[in-house]
């Protein structure tokens, strides 16, 4: 029995939709963290291969943790450079900037060196921390989300915008500056 082209197109659309729904369901495994929640503690390797533990910094610095899909991609590079360009302002406000994605330590090292990024990049190859923060996949990529964590370890600000990388740095800095002025 031969299938006509309409039936084949229908099957392709059905298989594609089925795949998308399965990816979406898989991405929904972590509990989404919200303002007021305690930030999870974690340890990952930085771009120099050294262990970075959030417990070493909570209570000492405001943490700006931003999750991004891929080193060297267009939006991610704009986002990283925006954090770099505002780095002194974050530091003066008592904040520490940390970027996280599933890239390797070597990839992060190359990315940091290429764009002279003065902040910590952490490798999360199994998306363990992504899942702890409940970050969902978008367009077959890990999500882009920023969290500001206060000195008590509470999430005080979140920002999610997949295609506006620069906004993450700008808006997080505005929030920290306004909170400090109060």
- How would you sum up the major sheet? 7 strands, mixed
Q: What is the percent of helical residues? A: 40-55%
Care to count the β-strands? 7
Shape: globular
Number of helices: 6
Determine the mean pLDDT: 83
**Strand residue content:** 15-25%
Q: Whole-number radius of gyration?
A: 19 Å
Helix and strand pattern: HEEEHHEHEHEEH
- Tell me the structural class: alpha/beta
Q: Roughly how many Å apart are the termini?
A: 74 Å
Q: Numbering strands along the chain, what is their spatial order in the largest sheet? A: 2-1-5-4-3-6-7
Give start-end ranges of low-pLDDT stretches.
Answer: 14-29
Family: Belongs to the peroxiredoxin family. BCP/PrxQ subfamily.
Signal peptide: 1-27
Keywords: Antioxidant, Disulfide bond, Oxidoreductase, Peroxidase, Redox-active center, Signal
Enzyme class: oxidoreductase
Protein model, in words:
The structure is a single chain. This protein is α/β, with parallel strands linked by helices. Helices cover 41% and strands 19% of the residues. The chain contains six helices and seven strands, in the order H-E-E-E-H-H-E-H-E-H-E-E-H. A seven-stranded mixed β-sheet has the order 2-1-5-4-3-6-7. A hairpin with a 4-residue loop joins strand 1 and strand 2 (51-53). The longest helix is centred in the first third of the chain and has 23 residues, at 5-27. It is globular, with a radius of gyration of 19 Å.
């Amino acid at each position: 029995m031969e299938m006509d082209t309409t039936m084949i197109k229908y099957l392709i659309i059905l298989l594609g939709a089925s795949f998308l729904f399965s990816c979406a369901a898989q991405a929904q495994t972590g509990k989404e963290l919200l303002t007021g929640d305690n930030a999870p503690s974690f340890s990952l390797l930085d771009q120099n291969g050294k262990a970075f533990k959030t417990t070493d910094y909570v209570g000492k610095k405001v943490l700006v943790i931003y999750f991004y899909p891929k080193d060297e991609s267009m939006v991610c590079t704009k986002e990283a450079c925006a954090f770099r360009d505002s780095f002194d302002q974050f530091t003066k406000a008592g904040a520490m900037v940390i970027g996280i994605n599933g890239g390797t330590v070597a990839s992060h090292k190359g990315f940091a060196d290429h764009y002279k990024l003065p902040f910590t990049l952490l490798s999360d190859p199994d998306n363990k921390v992504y899942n702890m923060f409940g970050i969902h996949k978008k367009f077959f990529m890990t999500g882009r989300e920023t969290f500001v964590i206060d000195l008590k370890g509470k999430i005080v600000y979140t920002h999610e915008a997949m295609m506006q990388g620069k906004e993450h740095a700008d808006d997080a800095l505005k929030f920290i500056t306004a909170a400090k002025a109060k």
